[in-house]
Q: What sequence folds into this?
């Protein structure tokens, strides 16, 4: 998916279910590539594949995508590409985890069986038919900020709670079920689980909300889409946009996401500008009075302290001498 923009940075959202026999070793290789090419973000490496959101200069992101695609295991990886005026992350973290999205459904392999993929325009045509239900498989804080018109939402705080909540959907087994999430990854296992539980006509929005906004104009997606980078929330709907979230303090319509200024609380909530200033960035009087409350500058976003951050931390396989050369910008072929 290509984008045309004058902004110098790209933000990449992607995942790929593919067997990795040596995930810890590959994690180190992947991490080092990111460091050497100034890629920042959060990447999960697992035995079942990889999942990431990263940012970098356009040319660096192009190198990164080429690096992923050059590996036969990940050649099918699809990138959702957005543009930005700066890095969307301050650090690079590449971690090994048992799953690329925590689902409690490790026995399911989307490469074997999953819901039918619908491209954005196909989803758009199908979503309003009489025998169709739209199912949001994301968590509360995500669908409270934005969701498709008439979508069914589940009261879950984490995706791992999804299997238990499916019991509430038994009456929909005779319907076409269209699942969706931010970028598509949760739907891979959510739709597979629905099929396992006896749902027969199950679909998923390929590329998720992000791709739907880019390719189908975002029509009937109400509110904003919560994203897992420093932007926090992004516009999706260019056709009939609306606001569905309400200020946590006063209840007025607001899609302005704020981190509570009390670091102990640190909740991510919609808070209007007026209430933001009145509570000095806090979500309640109690949080406003917390002695450790952070200074509020009107944005409600607090940059994490990166003092002492070492992007090479955890890389043990490269000789220390070689790492030191790379840290100081030197190599065996350096002209410096």
A:
């Amino acid at each position: 998916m290509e984008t045309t923009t004058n902004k110098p940075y790209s933000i990449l959202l992607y995942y790929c279910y593919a067997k990795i026999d040596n995930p810890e070793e590959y994690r180190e290789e992947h991490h080092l590539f990111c460091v050497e090419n100034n890629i920042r973000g959060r990447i999960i490496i697992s035995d079942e594949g990889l999942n990431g959101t990263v940012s970098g200069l356009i040319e660096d992101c192009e190198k990164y995508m080429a690096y992923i695609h050059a590996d036969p295991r990940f050649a099918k990886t699809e990138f959702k590409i957005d543009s930005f005026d700066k890095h969307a992350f301050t650090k690079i973290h590449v971690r090994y985890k048992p799953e690329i999205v925590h689902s409690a459904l490790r026995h399911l392999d989307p490469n074997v069986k999953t819901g039918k993929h619908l491209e954005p325009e196909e989803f758009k045509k199908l979503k309003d038919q009489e025998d169709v239900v739209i199912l949001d498989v994301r968590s509360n804080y995500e669908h409270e900020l934005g969701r498709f018109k008439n979508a069914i939402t589940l009261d879950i705080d984490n995706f791992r709670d999804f299997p238990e909540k499916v019991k509430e959907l038994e009456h929909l087994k005779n319907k076409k079920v269209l699942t969706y999430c931010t970028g598509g990854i949760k739907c891979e296992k959510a739709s597979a689980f629905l099929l396992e539980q006896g749902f027969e006509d199950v679909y998923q929005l390929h590329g998720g909300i992000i791709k739907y906004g880019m390719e189908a104009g975002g029509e009937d997606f109400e509110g904003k889409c919560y994203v897992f980078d420093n932007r926090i929330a992004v516009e999706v709907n260019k056709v009939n946009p609306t606001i569905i979230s309400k200020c946590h303090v006063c209840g007025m319509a607001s899609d302005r996401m704020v981190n509570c200024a009390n670091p102990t609380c640190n909740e991510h909530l919609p808070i209007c500008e007026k209430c933001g200033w009145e509570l000095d960035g806090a979500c309640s009087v109690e949080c406003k009075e917390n002695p450790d409350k952070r200074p509020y500058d009107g944005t409600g976003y607090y940059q994490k302290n990166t003092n002492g951050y070492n992007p090479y931390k955890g890389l043990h396989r490269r000789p220390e001498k070689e790492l030191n050369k790379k840290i100081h910008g030197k190599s065996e072929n350096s002209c410096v």
